[in-house]
Amino acid sequence: MAPENGRPPAVAPRQSVELDSAEALKLLGSVSLGRVVFTRHALPTVRPVNHVLDDGDIIIRTHEGTALTAHTRHAGGEGVVVAYEADTIDPDTHLGWSVVATGYAQLVTDADEVARYRQLLRPWMTRAMDYAVRIRPDLVTGIRLTSVPPPEGTDGPVLGLPPTPDS
């Protein structure tokens, strides 16, 4: 609960722990909401979407008229470069994880695959989502936000800033 001044209460320092790509991908698959990042009019565009992980690929559903559908429809070769981010970070404790997968997105064109993804992935919107986009991650990175262990010989967390290399 935030105090009346709107600032969240102070929490003990956190540290960022790098995740290996296998653990990061597993975490990404444990949630259904993420954000796809792609280029639109030469600028980065971010859209929240729901997803399913299928054999290491991230699958999202789109509809006619979306920029991502158009970009992937007209992409040649490997597809269009995108990033996909998902996370779970507790707003009160500031503990959790964040994963970013970067790779190529392609429109799924096989009718049987599209039908399968319609069964696996239910869109949140009432609009018809007739397309599926597959993101094949080439780079998967992630971090876990954890509590900073208390210094040796103390009983609790250290409040304030973490020590600097000079201290």
Topology:
Blueprint: E1 14-19, H1 21-29, E2 33-40, E3 43-50, E4 52-54, E5 57-62, H2 67-74, E6 80-89, E7 96-107, H3 111-120, E8 131-147
Distance between the termini: 34 Å
The residue-averaged pLDDT reads 85
Class of secondary structure makeup: alpha+beta
The number of distinct helices, counting runs of at least 4 residues, comes to 3
Sketch the major β-sheet: 8 strands, antiparallel
Form type: elongated
Secondary-structure element pattern, one letter each: EHEEEEHEEHE
Radius of gyration: 20 Å
State the share of residues found in helices, binned by percent. 10-25%
Beta content comes to 35-45%
**How many DSSP E strands?**
8
Low-confidence stretches: 159-167
Structure commentary:
This protein is 16% helix and 42% strand. The protein contains 3 helices and 8 strands; from the N terminus they run E-H-E-E-E-E-H-E-E-H-E. Strands 1, 2, 3, 4, 5, 6, 7 and 8 form an 8-stranded antiparallel sheet that branches. The chain is of the alpha+beta class.
Q: Short summary of the structure?
A:
This protein is of the alpha+beta class.
Describe this protein with a few key phrases.
disordered C terminus, 8 strands, elongated, 167 residues, eight-stranded antiparallel sheet, alpha+beta
